[in-house]
Specification:
Number of helices: 15
Structural class: alpha/beta
Bound molecules: pyridoxal-5'-phosphate
Order of helices and strands: HHHEHEHEHEHEHEEHHHEHEHEEHEH
Oligomer: single chain
CATH superfamily of the largest domain: Type I PLP-dependent aspartate aminotransferase-like (Major domain)
Number of domains: 2
Strand content: 5-15%
Shape: globular
CATH architecture of the largest domain: 3-Layer(aba) Sandwich
Largest sheet: 7 strands, mixed
Number of strands: 12
Radius of gyration: 22 Å
Helix content: 40-55%
CATH class of the largest domain: Alpha Beta
Length: 395
């Protein structure tokens, strides 16, 4: 096993590529052809033997550029196999649909991506799949929620916006003790900071849109794990058809080559911003797992190499003063997402959770003065100066 940076550049890639190309080319063909009928039979036999091949017959079943990207991420996660698909949400929904049946039960940790919660409560329920939502880092609550028909425990790590970091090893021990699979959405961690499969997790999910793509210019999703389990999802994926375009697969592969360098920067800048904010008198509270004040600091320190580029904090002010602070920032753009080259900021009360009553928001812990800030690849000193001038402007 090579180091992260070497794997990011070369991992599981054929050295000889078409046209003696140095880089993996974008293969745009929607159909892949056969020399003769014997060639067709060979492909069919390999497929029936449970092998997923670089060479498929039709673009919905795979594409060489997609395959190269899947292999690269699988190498970075230390996994046998991966599926690259159209978006992070598609990766989540296809995995849950493939692995759950009517009458099954799953456990979801709260403080998960809002659409994941919504899919479970509004849609899976229609097919007789029940979901219990438990607090984000409460392994005991997971244990209490286990039922004889529980099939999956789904968690994010870290969560968003509170950046909670669950003790995955403890979670896996409890779930596996009852034959229950653990799926971790590790989008915020990236394989640079955390490798959930090495802690016993069964499937890892990523929104490739965030750190993996890394340039705020694509949408993609990934499922990573052991070949047999990944192929169970792949069979359904062949029916659902949420494929990624080869051009997008290429952009993601390009992004993965610099993943380590970029995440190192996000880690450094995230920590610098978090420390600055924590020391500022106009900040009430900072949520960043790299700070000793974070409830999961010890777990995070044990399991993660770095703590990423997202920092959540509450300013001393009401909903309007918080909005005017956000408006006074000159470097980050106001917009959802994170993990790319450009810093982004949102005030969850008026963005992700707009339309909820103050009571509903409070039930989710979303206060009026909460700000979610995601560093980009800008100089941390510039981001801090910018935050300082915006805070100075708060009256
Ligand atoms: C963004 C995100 C998703 C959804 O991914 P898309 O690529 O936007 O579909 C899922 N989980 C987490 C943790 C995310 O941040």
């Amino acid at each position: 096993m090579t180091g992260f940076a070497t794997t990011a550049v070369h991992g599981r890639e054929e050295r000889e590529k078409p046209y003696h190309s140095l880089i993996t080319p974008v293969c745009s063909s929607s159909t892949f052809t056969f020399r003769d009928s014997e060639d067709v039979r060979r492909m069919q036999e390999e497929y029936l033997g449970g092998k997923y091949l670089e060479r498929q017959e039709y673009g919905r079943y795979g594409n060489p550029t997609q395959y190269a990207t899947e292999q690269r991420l699988a190498a970075l996660e230390g996994a046998e196999a991966a599926i690259l698909s159209a978006s992070g949400m598609y990766a989540i929904t296809s995995a849950l649909l493939a692995l759950l049946s009517g009458g099954d039960h799953m456990i979801l940790t709260n403080d998960c991506y809002r659409r994941t919660r919504g899919f479970c409560s509004s849609y899976l329920s229609r097919w007789g799949i029940e979901t219990t939502i438990v607090p984000p880092c409460d392994v005991t609550a997971v244990q209490k929620a286990l039922q004889p028909n529980t099939r999956i425990v789904f968690t994010e790590i870290p969560t968003n916006p509170w950046l909670r970091v669950i003790d995955l090893e403890a979670l896996v021990e409890i779930a596996h003790g009852q034959g229950v699979r653990v799926i971790a959405d590790s989008t915020l961690a990236t394989p640079y900071n955390l490798r959930p499969l090495s802690l016993g997790v069964d499937l890892v999910i990523h929104s490739g849109t965030k750190y993996l793509g890394g340039h705020n210019d694509l949408l993609a999703g990934l499922i990573v794990g052991a070949e047999q389990l990944v192929n169970e999802v792949r069979e359904l994926h062949f029916n659902l058809g949420g494929v990624v375009a080869p051009q997008v697969a290429y952009k993601l592969l390009r992004g993965l080559k610099t993943l380590g360098l970029r995440v190192q920067h996000h880690n450094t800048a995230g920590m610098a911003v978090a420390r600055f904010l924590e020391s500022h008198p106009k900040i009430k509270r900072v949520y960043y797992p790299g700070l000793p004040s974070h409830p999961d600091h010890e777990v995070a320190r044990r399991s993660m190499k770095g703590f990423g580029g997202m920092v959540s904090f509450e300013i001393d002010g009401n909903i309007e003063r918080t909005s005017s602070f956000v408006d006074a920032l000159r470097i980050p753009f106001i917009g959802p997402s994170f993990g790319g080259t450009e810093a982004l900021v949102i005030q969850p009360a008026v963005q992700t959770y707009y339309g909820l009553s103050p009571e509903q928001r409070m039930a989710l812990g979303i206060t009026d003065q909460l700000v979610r800030y995601a560093v980009g690849l800008e100089d941390p000193d510039d981001l801090i100066q910018d935050l300082a001038q915006a805070l100075d402007g708060i009256r």
